[in-house]
Amino acid sequence: MTARLIDGKAIAARIREQLAGEVAEFHQSTQIVPKLAAVLVGADPASQVYVRNKEQACAKIGMASDVHRLPESTTQAELLDLVGQLNADPLVHGILVQLPLPKHIHETTILDSVTPLKDVDCFHPENVGLMVQGRPRFLPCTPHGVQVLLAESGAEVDGAHVVVLGRSEIVGKPVAMMLVQKGETANATVTICHSRTKNLAEIVRSADILIAAIGKAEFVTPDMLKPGVVVIDVGINRVNDRLVGDVQFEGVREIASAITPVPGGVGPMTIAMLLKNTLTAARIAAAN
Ligand code: GUN
Fold first, then answer.
1. CATH 1.10.10.60 given to domain 141-267
2. What kind of architecture, by CATH, is found in domain 31-116?
């Protein structure tokens, strides 16, 4: 069996097209142009590409965006001050502080300083709490992208055993919470595996759906998988100038029933969900 490809690029394009229509309608009825403010500190090459992609994606669907590019030497106080200004700016609806931040800046302090109503990454504890309780204000971008890919792939999530590889705050933990909830493309039995998990290979082999988000290039090999598994690869690893996922794609596609490619799988979905959250934030602002 060769797995079906889950085409994140095409699915994200369709979502962006739909959002463009919603942005135009929203503008017509409120005169408001939804605006994202992105903050990039330092010169991390990958972060520069991600932020540029986000900026271009906003423009393409009729949203405004500002990118605040700050030097590596920016102090925590200066960054807090900028976030405070963006929190107070009525023309800014969504705020995104690109991670990672330089080592001398305490990440949690900065992320907690973003007002929850503009927290389009869904990193603020208030928004994480609302999401975990099943009454989300925003959904976290990459986990939501994964969920939509599962829905589009036709995979049966209800009652399935989903194994999540990785327990990060950005992907592993929130995606597990979303898929275990009551709801559509949810109701799964979820196991989270991480670096301290015993019998990891055995657990992974029992997965109906595998979500790989550990940041280790080609960690998941075909011998670890049950035939017919649906594989969502969240990894983006650079190996000799080549981008590879956390899954050994060529081998695994021969055993899985469906798989996301890297690039062109989860990546474009993250940006589409960020745009969706920015529109949600603008709607919240308009209603207040
Ligand atoms: N760096 C890597 N992924 C992300 C993300 O989803 N949001 C932000 N703000 N930074 C990131």
1. no
2. 3-Layer(aba) Sandwich (3.40)
Give yes or no: 48 in active site: no
Please confirm, yes or no, whether 182 is among the known catalytic residues: no
**How large a percentage of the chain has pLDDT more than 90?**
99
- Average pLDDT rounded to a whole number, residues 60-89: 98
The pTM assigned to this predicted structure is: 0.98
| Cβ burial, residue 50 (10 Å; 0-12/13-18/19+) | buried
pLDDT band for position 1 (cuts 50, 70, 90): confident
Question: Across the strands, what pairs with 41?
Answer: 70
Which of 54, 99, 146 has most ligand 1 atoms within 8 Å of its beta carbon, as the pocket-test mutant? 99
Reading the block at residue 52, the tokens are: 């540029």
Amino acid at 97: V
Domain ranges of the chain: 31-116, 141-267
Q: Which atom of ligand 1 is nearest to the CA of 47?
A: 1
Residue 66, classified by CB atoms within 10 Å of its CB into exposed (0-12), middle (13-18) or buried (19+), is middle
Determine if ligand 1 sits within 6 Å of the CB of residue 277: no
C-alpha 261 to ligand 1 mean position (Å):
20
Q: Report which DSSP code applies to 274.
A: H
What is the pLDDT, as a whole number, of residue 63?
A: 98
Domains 31-116 and 141-267 share a fold: yes
- Residue whose Cα lies nearest atom 8 of ligand 1: it is 98
Ligand 1 atom 1 nearest Cα: 99
Quick one: average pLDDT of 157-170? Answer: 98
